[in-house]
Amino acid sequence: MPDANDRPAADIHTSSKDAAGAPLGTAADTSEVFQPSEEVISAAHIKDWEKTREDALKDPVAFWSERARELDWYEPWTTALDDSEAPFYKWFTGGKTNVVLNALDRHMNTATKNKIAFIWEGENGDQRTMSFFRLRQEVNKFANVLKSMGVKKGDRVTIYMGRIMEIVIAMLATVKIGAVHSVVYGGFSTEALAERIEDARSRVLITADGAWIRGKTVKLKNIADDAVARSGYVEHVIVVKRTGEDVNMEAARDYWYHDLMALPIASPVCETEVMDAEDPLFILYTSGTTGRPKGVLHTHGGYQVTISTTLKWVFDIKDEDRWWCAADPGWITGHSYIVYGPLIVGATSFLYEGAPDFPYPDRWWKLVEQYGITTLYTAPTAIRGLMRFGESWPQRHDLSSLRILGTVGEPINPEAWKWYHKVIGGDRCPIMDTWWQTETGGHMITPLPVTPLKPGSGTKPFPGIDMDVVREDGSTCSPNEEGKLVIKQPWPGMLRTVYGDPERYVQQYWSEFKSQGWYLTGDSARKDEDGYIWIIGRLDDVIKVAGYRLGTAEIESALVSHPSVSEAAVIGVPDEVKGNAIHAFCIPKAGGAKPTEEVLKKHVREEMGPIAVPAKIELVDKLPKTRSGKIMRRVLRAKALGQDVGDLSTMED
Ligand code: WTA
Prior knowledge:
The protein is α/β, with parallel strands linked by helices. The chain is built from 19 helices and 30 strands. It is globular and about 70 Å long.
């Protein structure tokens, strides 16, 4: 299934003559500045960006506490930041809340109750709208269903679905009763899903029969069946009917969502569980340097403060807006800026099920026009993909409703930025290039609408966020010197741990600059003479492919799980649309038949999902390794790019 990060152009063939095809990596001009218009400034929540940043940095804890007071709490907190067990920071301890209290319940006392929360369109043109009131009713009903299945506070529930309203309902219902969701992106496949179910030990899985993508269906229930058989924790599977295909329903294990929602137990009245600020809210698995994905854990109290403040300030959300975050609810962008953030700020959101270019490359632009979208948030890869079809597609549509644009997930090359600004934004809409991570919960480096923009830079940290680009020894880099991007002070939306693996949390994020107590982002960056931050890329074995975060080790382990492969190495190489493409090198097992590239691609697709399929797989006899046996990916990368392989003194032979 696609999202904004999906491969809009990956399997599309454009015949357009004016296809731009911007080369990646074109050097950015750090002196080129786009100033905000008077109109943007007069509409903005925050008018003085630098002063707001400066004031907030004087006392970030006070700044965030003030933001937290804008939300509802059953009981106020006693300590805003407890750092007594750093790096296991706690925010708003003693406070009682629930994200659902702020996302739904509190709106029942205001006019927001009658506002549209979601406008949804299916790929096939189906439409659905839901008010805040109605959404809350559906959430309550489903929360009662989950309770009746024995789901209790603290239990984990895995959700594996396409972009339909029920994924939002399922997430909120889980949280409402104090359970913890683990949403697995619908573009993942059997092994990836099984592994995530197992790590979370979920007894309940919520899925759908299938999902629509490019006029075809993804057989989610079949994949879910295989994953459930492999992982062995799941007792109940709840299945939403979306495609209407025949699926296997196992008696006493599998239930149709609509059957359950029609039962008398599915009452629209349900108390929201009162949670401690630090109680777990959700687990979201993300790729790191080992083969096992990390379960990033977020909690109720701080997360809601970070995401609601950033959404409101960065995208300047107002009552009259129609907000479209074109990501997938299965990624952090979807959690924070499709589900929780917009609901907390009471925004009207648009949610679209399908591919950006289906049935024609103007689908997105048609949707913007048809629904009067005012704020559009997507990924550079989607922009580059759609840009390849040429200007004539967006030009067929009236995009004048747009006011603010945004990007996330990877660096945006200045060409794509300018195309987005001119062709989509009509030279009128500022572009919010937001840098953040699954771990940070919400935006960290981002402009506000009033910020002077430089194409390709996310500008500076959000108010109350303290970041820097530093050398190995922790000293601040000189202007334009490349260094490590670090976060110097805790923030409310930060991850609290790696689920079930606190050591990995400490090791991964807090060990490199332990004495300073800084969080390591894993990105390299530079700061220009104006203090604007330019992201260069990942320093670890994480590859961003079409905005998807994938670990080389995960793909390698999928490859070696094929019986004919004995060893594998995976690298990312630059790609015009996807940012990076995956190249794999495999050593076939001795004695057996050599696998074909097609067979191996199919295997990765079945195990990991379509997003992890390498663009190219080469069979080799040997892989470059250090004497300690570590694969030297940099050597493979240099060879693949025809560059100098550099120092080989540590290579085994
Ligand atoms: C990269 C996505 C440049 C970065 C919300 C980060 C970016 C990783 C940007 C996190 C951006 C995200 N400019 N790079 N605006 N946004 N990244 O966890 O490398 O999927 O560390 O979170 O994406 O990816 P994740």
